[in-house]
Amino acid sequence: MVALESTPPLSQHYTKVAHGRSHDRSSQSEVACHHDLPVIDLAGLMDGDEGARAKCASEIAAASSEWGFFQVVNHGINPKLLNRMRREQIELFNAPFSRKSSCGILNNSYRWGSPTATAPDNFSWSEAFHISLTKISDESCYAEFSSLREVLVGYAAEMQKLAKLLAEVLIKNLGQTMQDFEETIECDESTCFLRLNRYPACPLPAEISGLVPHTDSDFLTILHQDEVGGLQLIKDSKWVAVKPNKDALIVNIGDLFQAWSNNLYKSVEHKVMANPKIERFSVAYFLCPSYDSLIKTYKQPSLYTNFTFADYRAKVQEDSRLFGRKIGLSRFLRS
User: What pLDDT was estimated at residue 25?
Assistant: First the structure.
């Protein structure tokens, strides 16, 4: 159990945001359907014959089009590394809030709550460290959490390798080669991120999200979560609650892959429900391009205008300041 002093002042922040604001509680109180996400065995992709590889690649592409989310097992990442990451993460979040928020741990990447929230519906009951892969080997980022460095370096390398493998499958399914893709898009340790998340127990779970509904502003995301549950996504215009699978990693398509694929792959809105009794932990890896990478649809006619990742990030940040939420890809639809 995490000590009370480690939790950020979320209640005080929420009270300020909620003061004088109406709140539609139906979005949090509605009952979601429970579903198992598609589970894809990557053993066929990594070790199988040509037929097995083709079958696995087809399953990845189909899940990316139908769900925008899927789970992968036999992904090649050592469970011992995942378990070590979880232990180190819990120890880090156990630190007092005053320590986490002021001592420069992980390149001053600590975040909590929702600084841009303008209404209760925009408020997230969570805290996180969101760090560029370029910084995880820097010893000066770790203070007394020195054992975290080795784990993060190994974890990031494994996630980078898996993300590139999955991206290559999706690119080839579009009739492109990875070489052609990489001539336009740079996705490496200088552009990608890890986000360590903690969702403290929340006294108002019917009113507040652990993480508000959103899509991811990347090509794809790989999530390692605990078994508490709470992740939900939109499927067929309904919220679907994802059952935790201790042996699987969750993969989801981001906005950039939806634009690149001309909406063949789906970047799906998702959220994390708040839990009144149990805290939840997860680690997300984000496959992002360089800021000057040009995002263009792989074929014509395109549904979207061409834009750089920097353009996209700037528009997301502007909308967050103005409206307290991200609007996303619809900003770049052709008229």
Answer: 47
CB 124 within 8 A of CB 113: yes
pLDDT digits (tens, 9 = 90+) for 12-29: 888 888 775 555 544 444
Q: pLDDT tens digit string along 285-303?
A: 999 999 999 999 999 999 9
Could you give the CA distance from residue 202 to residue 79 in angstroms, rounded to a whole number?
30
The closest alpha carbon to 283, from 220, 194, 214, belongs to 194
Separation of alpha carbons 26 and 219, rounded Å:
31
The domains of the chain, with CATH numbers, are 11-16+25-332 (2.60.120.330)
Cα 132 to Cα 94: distance, rounded to the nearest angstrom: 22
Neighbours of 202 (CB within 10 A): 23
* Residue 49 three-state SS: coil
In this structure, the strands spanning 238-242 and 209-214 are unpaired
Place of tokens 């740079």: 186
Residue 319 three-state SS:
helix
Find, among 73, 308, 98, 283, the residue nearest to 184 by Cα.
308
Tens digit of each residue's pLDDT (9 = 90 or more) over 166-201: 999 999 999 999 988 988 898 888 899 999 999 999
In this predicted structure, what is the pLDDT of residue 15? 85
Active-site residues, by number, are 280
> How high is the pLDDT of residue 256?
98
Among residues 130, 102, 325, the alpha carbon closest in space to that of 213 is found at 325
Burial class (CB in 10 A: 0-12, 13-18, 19+), 200: buried
**Length of the chain (residues):** 335
Of 77, 68, 23, 44, nearest to 215 by C-alpha is 68
Residue type, 313: R
Share of the chain above pLDDT 70, in %: 95
Q: pLDDT (tens digit, 9 = 90+) per residue, 89-137?
A: 999 999 999 999 888 899 999 999 988 777 888 899 999 999 999 999 9
Q: How far apart are CA 199 and CA 272, in angstroms?
A: 9
Handedness of CA 227, 124, 192, 55 (dihedral sign): positive
**Neighbouring-strand partners of residue 252:** 69, 221
